[in-house]
Amino acid sequence: MAPLILFNKPFGLLSQFTDHDHEAQRPTLAGFISLSGVYPASRLDYDSEGLLLLTDDGGWQAQIADPRFKLPKTYWAQVEGIPDQAALAALDSPPSA
Question: What is the pTM of this model?
């Protein structure tokens, strides 16, 4: 059975093991996960926190993360203030290309 790691990603951490795209090296998963050969099966933004799944099973990882499989996902968000109808509608819209 492939390893499955459930990781509570803190705010201010990249959901990847390296940061090649930023001059100031930001914290990555490498500072928390020492098991080699595992990769995130989900992603959270740098400024988000929450459950992150990691595995070494590439097929399973793709089924979870690849948009081709259209796996439904539910996200909970905490916001400041009370969002208006336009802000709520934007959350329910597909991202623009």
Answer: 0.71
- For 4-43, b/e burial (b = at least 16 CB within 10 A) is ebebebeeebbbbbeeeeeeeeeeebeeeeeeeebebbbe
Domains of the chain: 4-91 (3.30.70.580)
Residue 37 CA to residue 24 CA, distance in Å, equals: 25
**Burial class, 97, CB count within 10 angstroms (exposed 0-12 / middle 13-18 / buried 19+):** exposed
Q: How do residues 34-57 score in pLDDT, each as one tens digit?
A: 988 898 988 888 888 999 999 998
Catalytic positions, written as ranges: 45
